[in-house]
Design goal:
By secondary structure, the protein is mainly β. Helix content is about 0%, strand content about 50%.
Length: about 110
C-alpha cells in the first residue's frame, strides 16, 4: 500500500522560507520520479516541481523557478521542497505525488504578514 506523508508546512511572512518533506513507502522509491503539487480551494491542482529517480533531472513551474528547489534522499525514501522568497500567492496545500497515481494528504503553506 502506497503511503505519502508530507511535513513542514506552516505560516510564514512574505520573503520567508520553508522546507517541506514527503516520506514515501509502498513502492520502489529509488526507481521513481516524484512531484510536488499545490492546490488552492476551488482551483485546479498545479504541478510545482518534479524530480527524476536519480535526482539529476528536475522541472519547475515558471511561477516558482529560481525560488523553489526539489531534492531527494533515496536512503530515507524522502523528497524535499525548499521554498525561498515566498509570496502570498504561494499559499496553498502542498502534496507530493508518486507515479503510482497517489497523492499525500497535503500540508498547508500560508504566506501572510
Amino acid at each position: 500500500q502506497v503511503h505519502l506523508v508530507e511535513y513542514g508546512g506552516g505560516l510564514v511572512q512574505p520573503g520567508g522560507s520553508l522546507k517541506l518533506s514527503c516520506v514515501a513507502s509502498g513502492f520502489t522509491f529509488s526507481r521513481s520520479g516524484l512531484s510536488w503539487f499545490r492546490q488552492i480551494p476551488g482551483e485546479k491542482r498545479e504541478l510545482v516541481a518534479t524530480i527524476n529517480a536519480t535526482g539529476v533531472s528536475t522541472y519547475y513551474a515558471d511561477s516558482v523557478k529560481g525560488r523553489f528547489t526539489i531534492s531527494r534522499d533515496n536512503a530515507k525514501n524522502t523528497i524535499y521542497l525548499q521554498m525561498t522568497n515566498l509570496r502570498p500567492e504561494d499559499t496553498a496545500v502542498y502534496s507530493c505525488y508518486a507515479p503510482t497515481g497517489n497523492y499525500g494528504q497535503g500540508t498547508q503553506v500560508t504566506v501572510s504578514s
